[in-house]
Amino acid sequence: MARKTDIPPSYYGEPRKFDPSFRGPIHNRGCTDVVCCVIFVIFILGYIALGTVAWIHGDPRKVVYPTDSHGQFCGQQGTPNANKAILFYFNILQCANPAVLINLQCPTTQLCVSKCPDRFATYLDMQYNYRYNNSYWEYYRQFCKPGFDNPRKSVAQVLRDEDCPSMIVPSRPFLQRCFPDFITRNGTLTVANKTVFKDGLGKTRSVIDLRDAANQVTAMQQGVESGITSLLDAKEVGMKIFEDYANSWYWILIGLVITMVVSLAFILLLRFTAGVLLWLIIFGVIAVVGYGIWHCYWEFSTLRGKPHGDGDVTISDIGFQTDFRVYLQLSQTWLIFMISLSVIEAVIIIILIFLRRRVRIAIALLKEGSRAIGYIMSTLFYPIVTFVLLAICIAYWAVTAVFLASSGDAVYKVMSTQDKCMYANLTCDPETFSQTNVTKVCPGSQCTFAFYGGESLYHRYIFVLQLGNLLVFLWLVNFTIALGQCTLAGAFASYYWALRKPQDIPSCPLFSSFSRAVRYHTGSLAFGSLILAVVQMFRIVLEYLDHKLKGAHNAFARFLICCLKCCFWCLEHFIKFMNRNAYIMIAIYGKNFCTSAKDAFFLLMRNVVRVAVLDKVTDFLLFLGKVLISGSVGVLAFFFFTRKIPVIQEEVPSLNYYWVPLLTVIFGSYLIAHGFFNVYAMCVDTLFLCFCEDLERNDGSPLKPFYMSPQLHRILRREQGSKLYAAS
Questions:
Q1: Domain containing residue 334
Q2: Separation of CA 540 from chain center
Q3: Are residues 449 and 459 in the same domain?
Q4: Is residue 600 in some structural domain?
Q5: SS3 of residue 591 by DSSP
Q6: Given CB 3.0 to 4.6 Å as the disulfide criterion, which of 120, 458, 677, 704 pairs with 698?
Q7: Which residues contact 53 (CB under 8 A, 6 or more apart)?
Q8: Which helix (H) or strand (E) holds 155?
Q9: Does a structural domain hold residue 232?
């Protein structure tokens, strides 16, 4: 006799009793979670007010354009600096002061220019050569204050009045600022083939001093203490990637359109050939991964067989390379690929062997889902509504964040090269600065632009407002997703609980479900979305703390942050799972969020084996479908961009990195397939809960008939028969 291990149903609530009047989603329902709905509306109105205030006080030009010492934007149209889009530092050597990272401002005059210097020169050299050739002054004056036209003025007077720089060095624009043009030759850092230069004040300086100053400015602008050399390398790679996108965007778009057509055709085919097609997916993925293993082995063997090749060179030997094609010339790379694909192949085969019976039930559920989508075709296009709403939320959040970040008036501070200046870092007025005694007490000090801000209550709480902007953004995003899930669940539940399909399916089920969700359950959807948004907010804060503690030596603090991140990750995914099922119950029965979440939880726990196996098996099959579509389009894109299709070799654009459009096509294809299959997954989840409810409400008799399809009922009877046989 088999041991009884099932938990009594009463432990997880009593199953629903038979109700002859129940015919699917209840139409006579009332508003739920009204208090949360009111709070949600108040927050939206407050969010609109926040965006309005940020729009009034903010100015995105402060983020887009660099600002000179007088608070004027470089490169802004309609201003004297319209054709001067680059910021030039009079003496970048003064930026090598550690105070730069504290005050976030370099204590030297900053000027907007149209181009960066391309040669070494000093003011004294210019004065000497000016006597013989006027062109020296015409070039040098580009980097002097507008209106200055006295090249005979002494260096001391020029530096005192901040009219011209004492020197200029060959530079190139980066981050819209002039930085020295560093080049490493044979391991030696040079600028224009020089390792030393004159600073215009009678001293000979090393280019190392320029590098230190440039590093300080770069760290000030980027918020990190990364070197200028690595950033310039990143810029070069970025420019090449941008060129690749510019040359291949048309073909990337074609690849994404192909994915959209294939995904739509795939779902439509599931309606007629679900069983065959899903088994084809399974064996197709096994075949694709198997081909990948064979190809990796072939590449590995070929590279290992070369007598003077790179077969013995490892990835650690060559280090990081910006050209990723270098790694494809190493046998170790292909060995790693082959092992990874072999593990994936083994996992897929083992899962299929041990869950082959459950796969048949999952396929029956997917067949039922394909029929439901076939009868309610409008559900396939609902993701467009979700996409538009999400785009609006993201755009509003981004614009509000930029306007908040650029709020405030120009603040000027005293910048001094002297460490003991008593006026250093105090606010000042550039119009009256020359009339004060600051320059007498602290010679060489300047009143320069520091940042945008203010002393009002609004400006003091900018950071808090940014956090509020982020929290409401997460709330709205989760609400948009919840609205889509509840809408789709209501439409598919209308299909399942129709006894005669399709005759009993109500007209316009998607629109009716959307109307019910908005009219009656905005509060419930907002409640569930708020819980998820708060958890996500905590996760963002933990990620920020983890980023700040990366350089810390407190192992316990890092361990604690790591544990909290893991716990909140699990909590977020559990809440997503519960919310999804709660929204299905809301769409069917019209109860509040807490009651629906409780009913969904108990229903799932009473069918825990089916939930653990069937639901995950269907998710796995849908995942294989996404992988097959994105992988197939990716393989096609690989052969195209690597010129391995002879018919259209001439059409392939010239690329720096072929992996740039390739990865874009693969990632974009997966997202598109995910959008279509997400509707399918919601359909299967809804049908699964309805299926469990159907088993508890009805027994298949004429008085209490099952609402499930005959095919699903037959497979269920086989499963129950197998269980009874095993128990005996």
A1: 241-375+592-727
A2: 13
A3: no
A4: yes
A5: coil
A6: 704
A7: 458
A8: helix 155-161
A9: no
**Token reading at 667:** 């990632």
CA distance 438 to 442: 6
In 3D, which of 529, 624, 545 has the Cα closest to residue 582? 529
Residues 577 and 719 in one domain: no
In the prediction, which pLDDT does 349 show? 86
Helix (H) or strand (E) holding 178: strand 177-180
pTM summary value: 0.69
- Note every long-range contact of 43-49, with CB atoms under 8 Å and residues 24 or more positions apart, other chains counting: 43/472, 43/475, 44/472, 44/476, 46/472, 47/396, 47/469, 47/472, 47/476
Indicate if 436 and 385 belong to the same structural domain: no
Contact 633, 639 (CB under 8 A): no
**Based on the structure, what is the number of domains in the chain?**
4
Is 185 inside any structural domain?
yes
Per-residue tokens: 234: 């990143």
Strand partners, 206: 196
pLDDT per position as a tens digit, 389-419: 988 998 899 889 888 877 766 677 787 766 6
Q: In this predicted model, what pLDDT tens digit does every residue of 97-122 receive, in sequence order? A: 554 434 445 667 888 998 899 888 88
pLDDT in tens, 143-190: 888 888 888 888 888 877 778 888 888 888 877 788 888 787 776 778
Q: State whether 427 and 364 are in the same domain.
A: no
The single residue listed with the structure tokens 């006026």 is 423
Domain termination residue (choose one: 453, 481, 512): 453
Beta bridge partners of 167: 122
Residue that has been written with the tokens 């215009």 in this structure: 200
Q: Is residue 43 part of a domain?
A: no
Answer yes or no: do 371 and 382 share one domain.
Answer: no
Same-domain pairing of 469 and 617: no
- Span 241-284, pLDDT tens digits: 777 777 777 888 888 888 888 887 877 777 677 677 677 777 88
